[in-house]
């Protein structure tokens, strides 16, 4: 007969042994899964003449040299059939579970985001915070193949771009989840950043706009920055007031108030910000009230011109660059938005108030 001490020791052994056994089984199963799969880091989608090309870039950890990035592609009548073709040609299973970036070629985006992302949206285990980029190129496949020959590191580059974007913006707008949500809105408020590859480097140039889920227009850097500003999405903002006078805006807060009366919408925009003089080549008596007042007037003029440019494009192109469609729908209803979206934009009136405080700027003189 077992003593109480023996029974206690036996129970302790079971409490330790069973979890340990389960853990070892879990590790072995996952080791087998990792060994049998290639985990995609970047997935690219292209379209030409009705045929889709899907390109996967994955890190081949088995390689001993520093260049461990592998590229494989497939073609088909749809993104899914191209993915199947790609998987068939690879010796291991291709997993999208860890995909961090989706790059969509310009031609594929113009053919329709729905065609590009329908298969992606149905994959249950994808990372919802994976980032979506449009690429200013007819073929990301050819672009990356040529770039890899020049020791271009796609994952490192996109990681750096993503980190920079997170530092500059309060909330990046290109997560997979947000893109899937926004691309179905009638009021065309979807903005996706687009990438340019030039001189062996890749960088963000601005936003791609969409109509009916199709690429409509690529906006330049300045207008894209203005849109981020008025969407209250910038942490800091450089502002060129004249050729020799530049300031940086910080502590930026942009608040919008939308009012609708007799189906005539009015958007009141209030901006509060601090500004610091970054460059004044011709000299500026920064401690004089008149100079500071003149500086603030220049800032208001610049911000006012930005807003006018945005609103004019909204009216002409029927794009919701200020992201007012959702709030407008709460005033008039989705049916009215769907039927008269263009009319609401044409009738949109804007008022702007800017409260800018210029911080002290010290000039260091040397003999």
How are the SSEs ordered, and which strands pair?
Blueprint: H1 4-35, E1 37-48, E2 51-59, E3 69-76, H2 79-89, E4 93-95, E5 101-105, H3 106-111, H4 113-121, E6 131-135, H5 140-149, H6 154-168, H7 176-182, E7 191-198, E8 201-211, E9 214-218, H8 221-230, E10 237-242, E11 245-261, E12 264-280, H9 289-317, H10 325-332, H11 334-346, E13 349-358
Parallel strand pairs: 1-4, 1-5, 5-6, 6-7, 12-13
Antiparallel strand pairs: 1-2, 2-3, 7-8, 8-9, 10-11, 11-12
Helix pairs in contact: 8-9, 10-11
Features:
single chain, 367 residues, alpha/beta, nine-stranded mixed sheet, four-stranded mixed sheet, 41% helix, globular, disordered C terminus
Largest sheet: 9 strands, mixed
Mean pLDDT: 86
Shape: globular
Count the E strands.
13
Distance between the termini: 97 Å
- What share of residues are in beta strands? 25-35%
Helix content range of the residues, please? 40-55%
* H/E series: HEEEHEEHHEHHHEEEHEEEHHHE
Helices, by number, come to 11
- Poorly predicted parts: 363-367
Rounded radius of gyration (Å)? 27 Å
Q: What structural class do you assign from the helix and strand content? A: alpha/beta
């Amino acid at each position: 007969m077992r003593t109480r001490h023996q029974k206690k020791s036996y129970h302790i052994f079971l409490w330790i042994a069973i979890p340990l056994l389960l853990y070892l089984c879990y590790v072995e199963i996952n080791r087998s899964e990792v060994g049998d799969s290639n985990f995609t880091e970047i997935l690219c989608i292209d379209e030409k003449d009705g045929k889709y090309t899907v390109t996967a870039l994955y890190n081949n950890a088995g390689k001993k040299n520093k260049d461990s990035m592998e590229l494989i592609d497939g073609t088909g009548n749809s993104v899914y059939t191209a993915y199947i073709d790609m998987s068939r040609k690879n010796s291991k299973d291709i997993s999208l579970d860890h995909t961090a970036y989706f790059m969509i070629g310009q031609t594929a985006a113009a053919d329709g985001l729905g065609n590009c992302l329908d298969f992606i949206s149905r994959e249950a285990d994808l990372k919802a915070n994976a980032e979506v980029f449009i690429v200013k190129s007819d073929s990301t496949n050819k672009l990356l193949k040529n770039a890899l020959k020049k020791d271009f590191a796609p994952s490192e580059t996109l990681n750096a771009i993503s980190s920079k974007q997170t530092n500059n913006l309060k909330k990046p707008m290109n997560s997979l989840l947000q893109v899937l949500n926004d691309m179905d809105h009638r009021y065309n408020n979807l903005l996706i950043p687009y990438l340019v590859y030039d001189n062996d480097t890749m960088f963000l140039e601005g936003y791609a706009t969409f109509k009916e889920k199709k690429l409509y227009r690529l906006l330049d850097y300045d207008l894209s920055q203005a849109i981020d500003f008025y969407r209250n999405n910038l942490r800091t903002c450089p502002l060129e007031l004249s050729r020799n006078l530049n300031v940086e805006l910080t502590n930026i807060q942009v608040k919008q108030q939308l009012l609708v009366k007799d189906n005539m919408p009015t958007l009141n925009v209030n901006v509060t910000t601090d500004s610091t003089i970054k460059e004044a080549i011709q000299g500026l008596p920064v401690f004089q009230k008149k100079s500071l007042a003149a500086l603030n007037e220049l800032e208001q003029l610049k911000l006012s011109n930005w807003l006018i440019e945005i609103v004019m494009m909204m009216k002409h192109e029927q794009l919701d660059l200020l992201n007012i469609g959702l709030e407008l729908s709460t005033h008039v209803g989705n049916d009215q938005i769907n039927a008269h979206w263009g009319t609401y934009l044409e009738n949109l009136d804007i008022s702007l108030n800017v409260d800018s405080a210029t911080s002290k700027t010290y000039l260091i003189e040397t003999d």
